[in-house]
Amino acid sequence: MEERKTKQKNALNKISKKLGKFFSAEELHNKCETEGQNIGIATIYRFLKKEAENENLNVFECEGKKIYSRSENEHSHFTCTNCHKKVHLKTPMKIFKELKKQANFTLEAFQIEIAGLCENCISKQAQ
Ligand SMILES: [Zn+2]
Ligand SMILES: [Zn+2]
Asked: What CATH number has the domain bearing residue 62?
């Protein structure tokens, strides 16, 4: 039983590294299937929770869903007010340092929400 758990954990670690910078539990689950690993969604949720607790993964809220990242500890959004397209932005940590000057805190999550018109909608308006 323990051996199976370790095997699953190793497989999940490996597979999660093949995903993009940000991934959801569902994406990890789907990737496991395509990799021929039969791992239940409940196991995946447990794995992600544990990894987040151990600070191996950063957790963000994205469109009401939890998403995970190994490398990024900031996750910002640009949302188009016309077509509602969402773009993920890497947040310059310079901003965080500026904010930190104003109050002392430790970083758990850092997310900026920007709204405006996307490239597509700007060019449509120009026509
Ligand atoms: Zn997002
Ligand atoms: Zn748009």
From this structure: 1.10.10.10
Give the three-class secondary structure for 42: helix
User: How many A from CA of 1 to the centre of ligand 2?
Assistant: 50
- Does 15 share its domain with 64? yes
CA of 18 to the centre of ligand 2 (A): 30
Which structural domain, as residue segments, surrounds residue 93? 76-126
Q: Are 39 and 76 in contact (CB under 8 A)?
A: no
Q: Are residues 7 and 30 in the same domain?
A: yes
| Ligand 2 centroid – CA 64 distance (Å) | 20
Our measurement of the distance from residue 54's CA atom to the centroid of its chain's CA atoms, rounded to an integer in Å, reads 16
pTM: 0.69
pLDDT tens by residue, 99-126 = 888 988 877 667 788 999 999 999 998 8
77 alpha carbon, closest ligand: 1
CATH number of the CATH domain containing 121: 3.30.1490.190
What is the structure's pLDDT at 1? Answer: 58
| Domain count for the chain | 2
Question: Closest-lying ligand to the alpha carbon of 86?
Answer: 1
Per-residue pLDDT of 65-93, as tens digits, reads: 888 988 777 788 999 999 999 888 888 87
